[in-house]
Specification:
Elements lengths: L7 H7 L2 H17 L5 E5 L2 E6 L16 E8 L4 E5 H5 L1 H14 L10 E4 L7 H9 L3 H11 L3
Amino acid sequence: MQIPAISVEDYVSQIPEDRQEVFKKLLNTINDHLPKGFSKGISSGMVGWAVPLETYPAGYHCTPGTPLPFMALASQKNFIALYHMGIYAKPELLDWFVAEFPKHSKRKLDMGKSCIRFKKMDEIPFELLAELSEKMTVDEWINIYETNFKK
């Protein structure tokens, strides 16, 4: 479910009211802990963080001329989704996250390749997500991207 928004504030305003505070807290958690150099904006109908073209002019190979995506946050019909490309691309980071999750949540980890789904708004492990946000710099993400994805 994409939300047709023109800004982060517009996106948040279109989320159901009962999720807005939690969503804002997730946004702030990521913003406060993400290493310098990533930019925040709207991408693919979600709030996203990317490596700006000024830093990485080659941009995203799938959509030439656009910034290199890194993380995204979306309000879906039944859950909030956090997409983290670093988890998808770096097995050590995935292993760390999977091992740490049970220490921060009673719930079973609901995760796809890069998508972490949160169905219970009052059980989101903010501290763990803060730590995850700190784990990869812009330079490391560019290096992993070029090694694994860019042809």
